[in-house]
Write a structure and sequence with these properties.
2 copies of one chain form a homodimer.
Chain A: E1 2-10, H1 14-25, H2 27-34, E2 36-44, E3 60-61, H3 66-70, E4 76-79, H4 86-97, E5 101-104, H5 107-124, E6 128-129, H6 140-147, E7 153-159, H7 162-174, H8 178-188, H9 196-199, H10 202-216, E8 225-227, H11 235-243, E9 246-257, E10 260-271, E11 283-290, E12 294-301, H12 305-321, E13 347-357, H13 362-372, E14 377-383, E15 390-397, E16 400-401, H14 402-413, E17 423-427
Parallel strand pairs in A: 1-2, 1-4, 2-3, 4-5, 5-6, 8-10, 10-17
Antiparallel strand pairs in A: 7-9, 7-11, 9-10, 11-12, 13-15, 13-16, 13-17, 14-15
Helix pairs in contact in A: 1-12, 4-5, 5-10, 7-8, 13-14
């Protein structure tokens, strides 16, 4: 057995603690599987005396995590601070510059600055690893990089935010509205005090940009992700979805289109019986489509000390074994500058819910607009009958161009008979 | 770029051809992702002039695949011949002895002789890789070895034979019996001319023994797998399963029990809505349970040129990149000699279908036997009412000891009122 790999953990929140816990409790198994010991030698966090239910008294305490980057006793810095800027970024940069390998679960940092960091890693020969940044315990980054490396990918679709999936699942199961369930989730600690990163789709976008970069060997392009969160998803739409054989999920989807790669995050109706449609609660899942392998589906816990810690420690074990790879599969200089498409160019099926005045000719007015935009309807449901009053009209379309659909919605919204802003949800038949 | 990695492919059946095809068509992508070229320099098969739809005229032809083992122009031998003995075994042994790395999809060979081969690989410093041996395109071996390496595993359960899953799916969807669907599958080429390896569960057992060895870091113990195939599964049982909320699947399951590790392959009733219950047709799926990560589920195509070729080429790419690992996660000398349990020690729930004479006291006779064996019933269904004639009685149990269940079945079979051998299917609430 060679000399141990010495770890410094910066940040002792849920994942930092989970990582420490696994390294300590599985020490023997890890040593066997790597051929060397992995030892945590130092830790850093905001409050030294906070009770974490784990003894850190024998570990060196760093008041300033930046000191880890220059400490010769540390081989690998595990960055568990979070945030795309500030201390997390400074620490990762300094560590890589000093030739120390870095393992992180920080999706915001990798999505925004992954390429600069990968360059630093290349320069110093350090490893930059971030399996834990996407979909917690699911080894999806290693799958794209190693297990499915012989494929050209045409599509990735995933449920990558446990908070959103929990909220959507709870809304449906408990027949409650978004605001109520969110408040409940915040009270229980399932959602952050500021839940906007999660519910507005930003966290999913970070993860999607990372997966896209690995699948297409390009730089993460977070600015090229179309993002829509789940705040506007209603129980009413869930009920109609169920009637149509669908369930509403927040998906991150990247696919090859004629105009380039299209990255998008938004609520989708997916078939209830599909693998992604069956993922409930805090679980995450990713479906990948490769030209040789076809569809491969991965499901597991997307957050928490154990699952995310499992991925962090797997990355550390790779370093201990000397596994060789590039953070974004290719050297930075070889990454492609690929064209990205706008959501306007999307070809999709759509669900549209309208509140209209119940009078003769309503459907004729609406369908004339669709005809005008060359959109073909697939089904419609009118709920209720109350002459002169508001009734609900639900339409689904065959595949159509997003831009045409947006124009149709704008035109429909202006009709006298339409009483509220139409609700549109994209349908993904995956 | 360094000098190319030179490949010899022995065997040009479905997977051999698929491998060749991917290496040729994805040459540029593979070179970029590995940092070196992968070149097929030689091939071997039974018939040189067979039309394979792929040009092999520029490749060296080996009449005897054994020559590949000693040819200095070949770095890696891809063994696609199949079978646990004979040419396949001789070729892999000779190649590893000569220091050539070997990639194979041969589950029978690895399940029976993996340890001897791993020893040869260790001795010569060659790589022995077999991602394609289990579950086709799903990178489950790499997941156990790398992505989930920080976990202690307590359970693996998988649908790992596409032929069986196709037959079971078709029986249910087409409402046809096993023999009919099998004949049809053979006619269409979905099942082998001799289907017994598949339908009798042997192929699944090979794959399960390999996964067990990776998860528990022990030698593959194919002799310790309890095996039951799908020949006795009837449409009638599928109908009762559906009524109870289950679907019948051939599973391979390894789990930690009090008496040791229990490996078993048999038809199971699994909840229709569970991830494994939703896997249909030729798809494969594996669910892994680790102490940190919890449940992780993988689904994808289990066979075919593309999916299995995808895994073969991924292994070759690992070799090109110089990825370091042991075939069974640990050096052979460090593999554990773990105790294995017999199926008698299984704790499971059971489904039992009886054909009984419809007369008063039937249920009392049957339930007395269960009481005697300390087995608690969960539900029963009596179908039909025909005094003095045969009716069906379906029982399900709470969790009970397999040995007790076997005793109860033997006793029930001897009752005068029981008209046919009882049908028992284990229930897995996963």
């Amino acid at each position: 057995m060679s000399s141990p790999l010495r770890i410094g953990i910066a940040g002792l929140g849920t994942v930092g603690r989970g990582t420490l816990q696994i390294i300590i409790s599985q020490a023997k198994l890890i040593e066997q599987r790597c051929g060397k010991k992995i030892e945590v030698v130092g830790v850093s966090a905001r409050n030294k005396h906070h009770n974490r239910g784990i003894d850190i008294s024998h570990l060196q305490w760093f008041d300033d995590p930046m000191q880890m980057a220059s400490d010769p006793k540390i081989d690998v810095v595990v960055e568990m601070i979070g945030g795309s800027e500030g201390v997390a970024k400074n620490l990762v940069e300094a560590s890589l510059k000093a030739g120390k390998s870095v393992v992180t679960a920080n999706k915001a940092l990798i999505a925004h600055h992954g390429i600069e960091l990968a360059k630093l890693a290349e320069k110093s020969g350090a490893v930059l690893a971030f399996e834990a940044a996407v979909a917690g315990g699911i080894p999806i980054i290693k799958a794209l990089r190693d297990g499915l490396a012989a494929n050209q990918f045409s599509r990735i679709a995933g449920i990558m935010n446990g908070t959103c999936n929990y909220i959507l699942t709870a809304m449906w199961e408990q027949k409650r509205d978004f605001d109520e369930v969110l408040a409940d989730a915040m009270a229980k600690g399932y959602a952050e005090a500021d839940p906007s990163f999660d519910v507005d789709g930003i966290d999913t976008a970070h993860k999607l940009a990372i997966l896209t970069s690995l699948a297409y060997a390009c730089a993460p392009a977070i600015g090229e992700v179309y993002i829509e969160g789940i705040r506007r998803v209603t129980l009413r739409d869930m009920e109609f979805a169920a009637e149509l054989g669908y369930v509403i999920k927040l998906l991150g989807i990247t696919a090859t289109t004629e105009g380039g790669i299209l990255q998008r995050v938004h609520p989708c109706m997916v078939p209830t019986s599909s693998p992604l449609g069956s993922v409930s609660g805090v679980y995450n899942a990713v479906q990948v489509e490769g030209d040789s392998v076809g569809k491969v589906f991965f499901e597991g816990r997307g957050a928490g000390d154990g699952p995310t810690g499992s991925s962090v420690v797997a990355d550390i074990m790779d370093i201990a074994r000397g596994t060789v790879y590039k953070p974004f599969t290719l050297p930075v200089a070889s990454l492609a500058a690929l064209p990205f498409a706008k959501v306007d160019a999307l070809q999709s099926s759509y669900y549209l819910r309208l509140s209209v005045t119940d009078k003769p000719g309503v459907l004729a007015e609406v369908t004339a607009i669709f005809k005008n935009e060359n959109i073909s309807l697939r089904s419609f449901i009118q709920r209720g009958h109350a002459p002169g009053e508001a009734v609900e009209l639900v339409l689904t379309t065959h595949e159509a161009l997003e831009l045409s659909m947006q124009k149709a919605i704008a035109a429909i919204a202006k009709l006298d008979i339409v009483r509220a802003q139409p609700t549109m949800i994209r349908i993904e038949n995956i």
